[in-house]
Amino acid sequence: MKYRLKDSFHLEPKKDYSVIGEPEDVQSARQLANDDRYQFQWWALSLVKARPVGGQKKKGADKGIDGLINFIDDDSGRAKRALVQVKSGHIKSGDIRDLVGVLEREKAEIGVFITLEAPTAPMQKEAVTAGFYHSPGMNNDYLKVQIVTIEDLLKGVKLNIPQEFATFKKASVDSDRKNQTALF
């Protein structure tokens, strides 16, 4: 919703509206994860503007995919995918190997692993071992598996992927701003 507000009304976060209850630091994120892992997952996905996959509270139904970021990086017009996994608990290098397997199974270009904990050296090695995705339109290489922490995202670190496209449907903008209202 906050991204739709910003896109529709060209509002700056925390300036023209406020979001109540959203974690703003790692401690608050940990509390959310302890209180409700699914809400934590949805919140973490919002930090990277990923579209949640599957319904709420359907453990196991996501097939290793928590979120999706679509992007188009060539003249084919075909949307490509960055699959997102979110982990709030204990993490290990096997989680990265599992993500690589999901990328292969789903034929996705990039995988993003969002974690509340700092990644271990073996996890980072697994991510680098997965190789690169070459973007033909951007003529750039991107790590095929990227690990990012909640702390990094809260500090404003952005994912290193081709520009996202059509992850969320954007609300239309009325040229007469007086007619625009947000209902909550």
Structure notes:
This protein is an alpha/beta fold and 184 residues long. The chain has a single domain, classed as Trna Endonuclease, Chain: A, domain 1 (3-Layer(aba) Sandwich), CATH 3.40.1350.10. A five-stranded mixed β-sheet has the order 1-2-3-4-7, with helices on both faces. α4 links the parallel β3 and β4. It is globular and about 40 Å long. It starts with a helix and ends in a 30-residue tail after the last helix. The relative contact order is 0.17. The C terminus is likely disordered.
In short:
The protein has 184 residues and is an alpha/beta fold. 31% of the residues lie in helices and 18% in strands.
Set out the fold topology.
Elements: H1 2-9, H2 26-35, H3 37-47, E1 51-52, E2 67-71, E3 80-87, H4 93-106, E4 110-115, H5 121-129, E5 132-135, E6 140-143, E7 145-149, H6 150-154
Parallel strand pairs: 3-4, 4-7
Antiparallel strand pairs: 1-2, 2-3, 5-6
